[in-house]
Amino acid sequence: MEQIKFNELPFKEFQKIGLSKEFLMKSMDKKILESLLSGKRTPLLESLEYKIKGEVKKFDGKLSLKKTDGRINLHIHPKLKEINNDLGLREEEIKMLVDNQIIQKNISGEMHLLQLDKDTNEILRVKQRNINIPLIIEGINITQEQKNKLKQGNAIELTKGKEKHTVKLNFNSDRGMDIKSDFERKQSEKYDFEHPEYKGALKTDRNDHEFDMSKKSSSLKM
Known about the structure:
It is a single chain. The protein is an alpha+beta fold. It has three domains: 6-78, no CATH class; 91-128, no CATH class; 132-212, no CATH class. It is 24% helix and 33% strand. It is built from seven helices and twelve strands. The protein has helices spanning 11-16, 21-26, 30-37, 91-98, 144-151, 182-194, 208-211, and strands spanning 44-52, 55-68, 71-78, 103-107, 110-117, 122-127, 136-137, 140-141, 156-160, 163-169, 177-181, 217-219. A four-stranded mixed beta sheet has the order 3-2-1-12. The protein has a three-stranded antiparallel beta sheet with strand order 4-5-6. Strand 4 and strand 5 (110-117) form a beta hairpin.
């Protein structure tokens, strides 16, 4: 989606969840606002609100914008207590998603890739034909075979100098993919094995940004 201008935002829709135009302009974290304007999902936001019969209810969730027929709409992704299996996935498919895997699924005659957003318990879905793999990753030319593997949700391995890197799609990432050195991958697997309750939540000096769980939740503090 093309970059959205601030004055194009649907301010009335934001107001319904307790975010005024003034707040968006002056108080919202700039990185969160930039994510919205570039068409990305925000991190998990706390203390959003909505009204039911005059009573204000609080909730946590993510926000995104979508442009349809020239109109920009606000999409709300509330944090769910459990996974909403509206696609009728099998138990083993749900387990794969919970284990941080990407799976392929034919939905209404078209192949999609599915991944779980663990912050909200929402199943993300992306049409396979809409996935564009760059020609060059980490300065290395990507072959057609490697592109096909990535578009199927599989990981590929790239060698840069003496270090190997593992590349895999990640729809929860702003970049759309994860790139881990062999060192990071092994440390992540070791941590996942020892701490299954925090799968993928490793923090080291070399990969602080990618795995720091503390950066996943952002308080609005209104």
